[in-house]
Amino acid sequence: KAKSQGKNDYRMFSPEMYINSSEELLLENDLREAIKKEELLLHYQPQVDAFSGEIAGFEALIRWNHPVHGLLSPDKFIPLAEKTGLILPIGQWVIHTACRQHSSWMKAGLAPLKISVNLSAHQFLKQDFTKNVEEIMSTYSMNPAYLEFEITESMAMDFSYALKVLEELKSLGVQISMDDFGTGYSSLLYLKQLNIDTLKIDKYFVDDLLEGTYGSVLVSTIIAMADAMQLKVVAEGVETKAQLQELQSLGCQLIQGYYFSKAVPADYITENFNTLKTEFAAKR
Ligand code: C2E
Ligand code: MG
Ligand code: MG
Ligand code: MG
């Protein structure tokens, strides 16, 4: 921002910026300690079958229980983690924690569930990422069929490198999902070439679903083409019954959104799994 305001602009070195960057430094120092101090945690948001109400799986979403600022959402610290490289240890922690949780849910007798884990570009592009994932999975005897990684369109900008990493990951047997689909520049054909299993339609399109005459045209086109290419589809950010019904009529199989549930702590799911199942079946 400062750059575009010109060289002599007083805002270049305003005290405000100084405060902001020192605040950022403080936060960075805290973040360095956050794993050790066990301040990071994962919440889990269900992905629900639009027609049966069955729980297909959960997306793991990181939170930071900061000693002063309270529970922070990822938007408050993931960009900083990416900027500082801390995303690598944090990302490792996320995969470990999600696999451990999955194993504990399996032992507790919950139905087979898929766990989706968000990746940052740094992780995805890091050498030996696949080997690393393989090691973590073996630590928790994780069945790879139940592990899904969510990537974003910008991570596949270098097509041939992305293709290489995705081929390695797929050879482990894990699933790959394209997050926030429709907000970037990739086409469905591109997803098919990259061997993606699932695409997640961004909330932006779901918000527009019932607006105006053409609100559902884009979503319906995406679903029809995804079907033809045998890609699974998840609609993100579904908040109302009306949106759910529209998505059902368009043939969208999986739903993630506040209408069914926000992301909740793991223990909440362990303790209320059967209640949640009944609740979702009644809401569909
Ligand atoms: P995302 O992967 O697209 O996750 C979906 C976000 O939408 C989540 O926000 C979720 O709580 C929110 N959401 C779901 N349904 C609804 C709804 O019906 N209405 C509204 N208003 N929001 C809904 P959250 O948890 O704040 O995460 C934000 C982003 O942070 C995620 O977007 C993802 O890009 C990133 N993120 C989260 N966890 C991780 C992680 O472990 N690693 C990395 N690298 N990024 C993460
Ligand atoms: Mg995601
Ligand atoms: Mg998303
Ligand atoms: Mg998003």
TrEMBL record:
Portion of the full sequence shown: 464 to 747 of 747
Domain EAL: residue ranges: 24-277
Protein name: PAS domain S-box-containing protein/diguanylate cyclase (GGDEF) domain-containing protein
Top-level taxonomic group: Bacteria
